[in-house]
């Protein structure tokens, strides 16, 4: 959990982690929860991650399933 986040990130703490999919593939990304737990079920979503130079930056992040 990061409590000091880069400019343009509106959500803090910033929770980052490695998510493992059913097929064994792994992906590093932002997890949208204030209470992360090892082994918690997550699902990917696509949307706004931050604003940089007045432009919205979109990408994948994870939310509790």
Tell me how many strands there are.
Answer: 4
Strand share of the residues?
A: over 45%
Largest beta-sheet details: 2 strands, antiparallel
Derived from helix and strand composition plus strand pairing, the structural class reads: mainly beta
Instruction: Provide the residue-averaged pLDDT.
Output: 90
Shape, please?
globular
Number of domains: 1
> What letter string, H or E per element, gives the SSE order?
EEEE
Distance between the ends:
20 Å
> Which sequence of strands runs across the widest sheet?
1-2
* Discrete helix count: 0
Oligomer: single chain
Gyration radius, rounded: 12 Å
Helix content: under 10%
Outline the low-pLDDT stretches: none
Q: Key terms for this structure?
A:
0% helix, two-stranded antiparallel sheet, mainly beta, 65 residues
Structure description:
- This protein has 65 residues and is mainly beta.
- The protein has one domain (16-64).
- 0% of the residues lie in helices and 48% in strands.
- The chain contains no helices and four strands.
- It has strands spanning 16-20, 26-30, 42-52, 55-64.
- The strands form two sheets. The chain has a two-stranded antiparallel sheet with strand order 1-2.
Task: Please describe the topology of this protein.
Blueprint lengths: L15 E5 L5 E5 L11 E11 L2 E10 L1
Antiparallel strand pairs: 1-2, 3-4
Task: Briefly summarize what is shown.
With 65 residues, the chain is mainly β. Helices cover 0% and strands 48% of the residues.
């Amino acid at each position: 959990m990061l409590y000091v986040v880069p400019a343009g990130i509106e959500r803090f703490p910033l929770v980052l982690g490695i998510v493992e999919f059913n097929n064994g593939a792994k992906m590093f990304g932002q997890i949208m929860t204030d209470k992360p737990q090892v082994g918690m079920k997550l699902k990917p979503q696509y949307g706004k991650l931050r604003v940089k130079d007045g432009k919205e930056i979109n990408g994948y992040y994870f939310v509790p399933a």
